[in-house]
Amino acid sequence: MPRTFQHRTYTIQEGLMAEWVEKWRSKVAPLRREFGFEIHGAWVDHERNQFIVVLSYDGPEGFRERNQQYWDSLNRIESGVEPMLYLMNRVVREVTPVY
Fold first, then answer.
1. Number of domains in the chain
2. What predicted TM-score, i.e. pTM, was given to this entire model?
3. pLDDT mean across residues, the chain
């Protein structure tokens, strides 16, 4: 299965960006990498209160299945990070690199 890339834009609740970024860096990103996801970058758009990340996965089960395994994992559940406490909106797009 070819590498799948996702561009994710999360609108964070007012006043929670710093907390979200800290938890994402310390808990979400390391666990994503453990599950074989590659993180190509993460950015904050302060003007729009948005967190943007590009990640990919290239494994035998495909992005969607591996993503579900990530969400169902005991490590993710025990991390204590509940994105819905932080996110007002999320837009997830599959993208294809051209350069």
1. 1
2. 0.92
3. 95
